[in-house]
């Protein structure tokens, strides 16, 4: 089950968009380990938004779209639309 997701780290106040081909929880655990790369710097990442896709190519395309925004405000609008008050 491919997913596109957005993670948030409160310790660095940053979002990260990604996709996984299968298990979202397992992927989150990998982000929260000490490794090279953007998410390896901290271990408090939480999934704040996710979206299921039928194909991994769709999930990857959506990840690329979100990353192309380069806008925190747009990301927060997307996250907010998933959690209306």
* Domain module tally: 1
The best one-word shape is globular
Output the structural class. Answer: alpha+beta
Helix content: 25-40%
- How many β strands by DSSP? 3
What CATH architecture do you see? 3-Layer(aba) Sandwich
User: What is the terminal separation in angstroms?
Assistant: 28 Å
**Level-1 CATH class name:** Alpha Beta
Q: Poorly predicted ranges (pLDDT <50, ≥5 residues)?
A: none
Radius of gyration: 12 Å
Q: What is the H/E string?
A: EEHEHH
Largest sheet: 3 strands, antiparallel
Strand content is 25-35%
Please characterize this protein's 3D structure:
- The chain is α+β, with helices and mostly antiparallel strands.
- It is 39% helix and 26% strand.
- A 3-stranded antiparallel sheet has the order 2-1-3, sandwiched between helices.
- The radius of gyration is 12 Å and the shape is globular.
Per-chain topology:
Elements: E1 3-9, E2 14-20, H1 24-31, E3 45-52, H2 56-69, H3 72-82
How would you concisely characterize the structure shown here?
With 85 residues, the chain is α+β, with helices and mostly antiparallel strands.
Tags for this model:
3 helices, 85 residues, 3 strands, alpha+beta, three-stranded antiparallel beta sheet, GIY-YIG endonuclease
